TrEMBL record:
InterPro entries in alphabetical order: NAD(P)-bd_dom_sf, SDR_fam
GO terms assigned for molecular function: oxidoreductase activity
Family: Belongs to the short-chain dehydrogenases/reductases (SDR) family.
Species classification: Bacteria, Bacillati, Actinomycetota, Actinomycetes, Kitasatosporales
Protein name per its UniProtKB record: Oxidoreductase
UniProt-listed Gene3D superfamilies: NAD(P)-binding Rossmann-like Domain
Pfam annotation, one family: adh_short
Sorted UniProt keywords: Oxidoreductase
Length: 308
């Protein structure tokens, strides 16, 4: 039998931030960490849904140390506020989980294409702003949730905001490729700085979440919503199973910098294992270019992590 939630090491005394933890994979990951004793902050955009998730988690895990904190990854002011209000001098685990998928063209509060802005730039900025806490914590990890659909597209360095023709699934694939290039470059810079912080990535395979419905809802594409829900019921693994690669990357022994963890069976379902990734997600030059562009776009530096 493969690795499962019962294999998570004791997390007592550790603090975790999980973005998008009000539902789906994020909620299940937060619950798994709380069950093993971690203090978990649910970083969510909606106060109503975030508070409800915290109450649900405390009901499911008696004695859980958890709380909601407001975080809107589509607004860099909110990201800065979250980091500035973070309590404590250490952070053991940052799970960059939140995201949007296949949404119509739109822009964030700062003018970035929505999927690139939320899925990549928001988490890039959050990680950079919380970096001092991570660097100060022995055994800290950063886990960024990508997708097998990163294989749909490499990033276009000349059109990061998809201004020259927008195709929602290509834009989604680019944002998920950006997650992996970010992890690749962050791992390289941490190693160059002599840091023991581990940056890894994960993907859930095909898990039963509301991402497809959420992507279709803004256009009221009722048929797509219904088909997505039917497909989830018939094919997808439960959200709790989809969260296992994230939990593995966050807690398992032997996770290496720049690992990419996903379901074992064809990348769709099953116990966590190291996953295939497109060759372009290990391109050093592309990763450094994206890093530089992301710093310029967000205004967030990673002090202490030079290019090396």
């Amino acid at each position: 039998m493969g690795w499962n939630e019962t294999d998570i090491p004791d997390q007592s005394g550790r603090t975790a931030v999980v973005t998008g933890a009000n539902s789906g994979i994020g909620y299940c990951a937060a619950r798994g960490l709380a069950r093993r004793g971690a203090r978990v902050l649910l970083a969510c955009r909606s106060e109503r849904r975030g508070q409800a998730a915290a109450e649900r988690l405390r009901a499911e895990v008696p004695g859980a140390r958890t709380a909601y904190r407001h975080l809107d990854l589509s607004d860099l002011t909110s990201v800065r506020d979250f980091a500035g209000d973070f309590e404590g001098d250490r952070l053991d685990l940052l799970v960059n989980n939140a995201g949007v998928m296949g949404v119509p063209y739109g822009r964030t509060a700062d003018g970035f294409e929505t999927q690139f802005g939320v899925n990549h730039l928001g988490h890039f900025a959050l990680t950079g702003l919380l970096l001092p806490k991570l660097l100060a914590t022995a055994g800290a990890r950063v886990v960024t949730v990508s997708s097998a659909l990163h294989a749909l597209a490499d990033i276009d360095p000349g059109d990061l905001n998809s201004e020259h023709g927008y195709r929602r699934w290509i834009a989604y694939g680019r944002s998920k490729t950006a997650n992996l290039l970010f992890t690749h470059e962050l791992s390289r810079r941490l190693a160059a700085a002599g840091s023991t912080v581990v940056a890894a990535a994960a993907h859930p395979g095909y898990a039963d979440t509301n991402l497809i419905a959420a992507g279709a809802a803004p256009e009221n594409r009722a048929l797509l919503v219904r088909l997505g829900r039917i497909s989830n019921r018939l094919v997808a693994q439960p959200a709790a199973a989809g969260a296992l690669p994230t939990l593995y990357a966050a807690t398992a022994a032997g996770v290496r910098p720049d690992d990419f963890v996903g379901p074992r069976l064809q990348g769709w379902r099953g116990a966590p294992a190291r996953s295939w990734r497109a060759p372009w997600t290990r391109d050093d030059a592309a990763a450094e270019r994206l890093w530089t562009a992301s710093q310029t776009m967000t205004g967030v530096g990673f002090e202490g992590l030079a290019a090396g």
